[in-house]
Amino acid sequence: MAKYNIHAGHCPAGGTGSGAAGYLIESTEARNVKNSLISILKSNGQTVYDCTVNSNMSASDCLKKIVEMCNKNSVDLDISIHLNAGNGTGTEVYYYSDSVKSKAAAVSAAIAKALGIRDRGAKKNTSLYVLKNTKSKAILIECCFVDNKTDRAAWNATKCANAIANTLLGAERATGFRYRGHVQDMGWQRYVASGGTAGITGISKRLEAIQIDPAGLTIEAKAHIQDIGWKNYGKITKNTIIGTVGQSDRLECLQFKGNIEYRTHVQNSGWTSWTKADGTATMGTVGQSLRIEAIQIRKKA
Fold first, then answer.
1. Do 7 and 113 sit in the same domain of this protein?
2. pLDDT at 72
3. In this predicted structure, what is the pLDDT of residue 225?
4. Residue 128, domain extent
5. What is the per-residue pLDDT for 171?
6. At what angle do helices 26-43 and 157-169 cross, to 10 degrees?
7. Which of 48, 119, 203, 277 has an alpha carbon 20 to 30 Å from 141's alpha carbon atom?
8. What share of the chain is helix, strand, coil (3-state, %, to 5)?
9. CA distance 201 to 198
10. What angle do CA 119, 78, 63 make, to 5 degrees?
């Protein structure tokens, strides 16, 4: 598992070092991306340090404080999140070390694709303070332009964070027994291996569907879906979609039968206990209008 320093650039909105403003407020949206990104990475077992400055100070003092916090940690990558200005359009990612050029290019391309805006690509810069002074390898992401109407119309902080996370984690990397979740406003996430987290905790997003590749296991599934009720999927295959896509309906309760164990993260109550998939036990709620937010599944030994 990797370790990351992540921070939103600049001080909070309204301060002297709070960044660019236009149709979007940089310091606010960068924090929205940062919060979602940290949640996704932690849900997937990564170690993340939040190095965001949350008090007002000058721009130069803010940069020094960010670097000071970053350099307290030994990490694989420092990630600085910004929004751009200057009447351009699109996403670009700056890097200092050539060793992260390909990662910077991949992040830029992923965000641009997710938002449907121009991919300005990876750009080397040896003068930006954070890139120059952090001890670990670093990238600085300019997610979009705050003063461009096209970028404003396309902007979605959650999609942006998911694009970054999928690039860092390696989309579709898991093989064999694996599963993935379809999350509100974000769509399908990457596949995770046994024990991984499908869905996201901490940002109040509903899990709308899951897809399991049994990889030789026999698994039967039922789901209680918002406005639909219980649906029996019987024996599932890797192509079975448990839940709905494109209907904004939450998964509320799940039941499995097979040589697996599972638990769910439920709105207002958090993670349930691990339970055996015996075809009787259920995880979630019925009749309470509560969303399942995430699920973890593991093969029984």
1. yes
2. 97
3. 98
4. 3-169
5. 47
6. 40
7. 203
8. 25, 35, 40
9. 10
10. 95
Regarding whether 58 and 100 lie in a shared domain, the answer is: yes
Exposed/middle/buried for 100, CB within 10 Å: 0-12, 13-18, 19+? buried
Burial 7-24 (b: 16+ CB within 10 A, else e): bbbbbbeebebbbbbbeb
Q: Residue 208: name the closest of 236, 238, 254, 244 by CA.
A: 244
Please give the pLDDT value at position 175: 62
126-164: burial string, b at 16+ Cβ within 10 Å, e else: eebbbbebbebbbbbbbbbbbbbebbeebbbbbbbbbbb
Phi, psi of 94 (to 5 degrees): -95, 145
Residue ranges in the chain modelled with pLDDT below 70:
15, 171-175
Predicted local confidence at residue 174, as pLDDT: 57
State the Cα–Cα distance between residues 255 and 56, nearest whole angstrom. Answer: 49
Same domain, 195 and 161: no
Alpha-carbon distance 243 to 15, whole Å?
45
Structure tokens at 261: 């164990």
Q: At what angle do helices 157-169 and 101-115 cross, to 10 degrees?
A: 140
Contact 290, 284 (CB under 8 A): yes
Single out the residue in 139, 169, 199 at which a domain terminates. 169
Q: What is the residue type of 288? A: Q
Q: What is the pLDDT of residue 173?
A: 53
Confidence (pTM): 0.73
How far is the CA of 277 from the CAs of 175, 253, 299, in angstroms? 22, 13, 10
pLDDT tens-digit readout, 213-227: 999 999 999 999 999
159 shares its domain with 183: no
